[in-house]
Each structure stands twice: as C-alpha cells, then as structure tokens.
Design brief:
The protein is of the alpha+beta class. Among the domains are: 130 residues, Ribosomal protein L22/L17 (Ribosomal Protein L22, Chain A), CATH 3.90.470.10; 43 residues. The protein is 59% helix and 15% strand. It has eight helices and five strands. A hairpin with a 5-residue loop joins strand 3 and strand 4. Helix 2 packs antiparallel against helix 3.
Length: 258
C-alpha cells in the first residue's frame, strides 16, 4: 500500500463500528494481532484473546467477511485482513469529587474501529491451499486425493470386518455359555424339584417296596400248615397221654380188699 493513501480510499471490503465505548489505545493493541492475517486465522486469534474489546472486533471482522461475500462476490477462504485501525471518537467528560471541595475530570473515551478485508494474491493463495492440503491428513480433515480416500475406505472396511468377526465369535461363545448355563439349571432342577419322570420312577419304587413289605408280612402255605398243626396239638387234652383213671383205681381197690 502506497503511503499517503487515505483510509477511506483503501481498496477492499470494510466494516466499521462507531462510538465504541473503549479507548483507541486498547483497541489498537488487539488490532495489531490480526493485521495481515487470513480471516480464519484472525478469527481464531480473536477467540483466544482475553480482552473484552476482542469480542467487538471479532464481530466487526465477521461483518466485513459477510459484506465481501454478499456484496462483492468474494470467496471467504481467499480473504485476509488488509487493514484494521481504530480512530478516536468523542470523549465524554465527567467529574469526580475529591478532597477539600475540589473535583477531578473523568474522560470516558470512545473510538471508531474499521476492519478491511481483501483478496489474497494468487501466489499467496496457492501456497496457502497447498499448506492446507498437506496438513489435512494429519489434522483429521477430508482426504485431498483419491488414493488417500481409497486407503481410508479400505482401512474402514477392514476394521468393520474385524468387528463383525469378533461379534460372531462372541455370539458363539455366548451360545456355548448359554448351553452350559441351561444344563446346570436342569441339574439344579433335578436335584431340587424332580420332574415328572423322576416322580414316576419314585412312585414305582415306592409301590414295589410296599408290595415287598406286604408279601413279607403274609405267611406262606408251609407256615400256615405248621401253625394249624400247632393249634391242633394244643387243643388235644393231656389226659390222652396218661393211663385211664378207672383201671388204676380198680386195681388199688382189689389190693386193699386182699
């Protein structure tokens, strides 16, 4: 930019904030950080500056970029901050009471901030595009070439295949574990709560045991005969085995008579 050019004659698209309630000195310290920067870099810088005036300057920069895109049909990615400056505005006078009846002047300063954006030179624009394209793969952005995009698709497909294989194996393991758990539950059920088959088996065993007990309690035919013979012998009187009472008495009487 040639010296002697007036601020209102500088080429580019501009945006301005007038009567901003901040001193021009404070605004200039922030404007010096973005002068000559690409609009995207300048916006990032203003987003990290901790001064309050940076918010207003950032709005002014966004307005200048919007004016260039809508009014002058410029590409926002090809713009940079060609000029930015702060002019002093009117100063508001206020008074503060001090000791011994005196007063001190308070100056509330204002300023006018102007941001001008212009298109980058072709060489600068080409170098920036090359740097951006080279930095995209490492920064995680979109792949710039077809080979890199194909490589990325291949890696994604491989990763998905590995995930599906792992899920398939996991499903088989899960089914095996489910079968083992079902068998264990069946064993627990057989132990604790018998099924119908177990109940039938137990009933059959109990019936056989009952029949055996009944059979053991009932006497056999031989035992019955022995019991009847024993009862008959018990019923015969003991006198049958001894000699008749009449004969000995008669013999005794004969002996007495003799």
């Amino acid at each position: 930019m040639a010296f002697g050019t007036k601020t209102n004659e500088r080429p580019g698209t501009r945006a301005q904030i007038r009567y901003l309630r901040v001193s021009a000195y404070k605004a200039r310290e922030v404007l010096d950080l973005i002068r000559g920067k690409h609009v995207r870099d300048a916006d990032e810088i203003l987003g990290l500056v901790e001064r309050d005036v940076a918010r207003d300057i950032r709005k002014c920069l966004a307005s200048a970029v919007a004016n260039a895109a809508n009014n002058d049909a410029q590409d926002p990615e090809a713009l940079f901050v060609s000029a930015c400056f702060a002019d002093e505005g009117p100063t508001l006078k206020r008074w503060r009471p001090r000791a011994r009846g005196r007063a001190t002047r308070i100056r509330k300063r204002t300023c006018h901030i102007t941001v001008i954006v212009s298109r980058l030179a072709e060489d600068d624009l080409r170098r920036r595009l090359e740097r951006t394209a080279a930095a995209r793969p490492t920064a995680g952005g979109r792949r710039s070439t077809a080979g890199q995009a194909a490589s990325r698709r291949a890696r994604v497909a491989k990763s998905r295949g590995a995930v599906e294989t792992h899920d398939h194996d996991h499903d088989h393991d899960h089914d095996h574990e489910t079968e083992q758990a079902t068998a264990a539950e069946a064993a627990d059920v057989n132990e604790g709560l018998p099924t119908d088959e177990l109940v039938a088996d137990e009933a059959a065993i109990a019936a056989e045991a009952t029949e055996a007990e009944v059979a053991a309690e009932e006497p056999t035919e031989l035992e019955a005969d022995v019991a009847e013979a024993t009862a008959a012998e018990a019923a015969v009187p003991e006198a049958a085995d001894e000699p008749a009472a009449d004969e000995p008495v008669a013999e005794d009487e004969k002996k007495d008579k003799d």
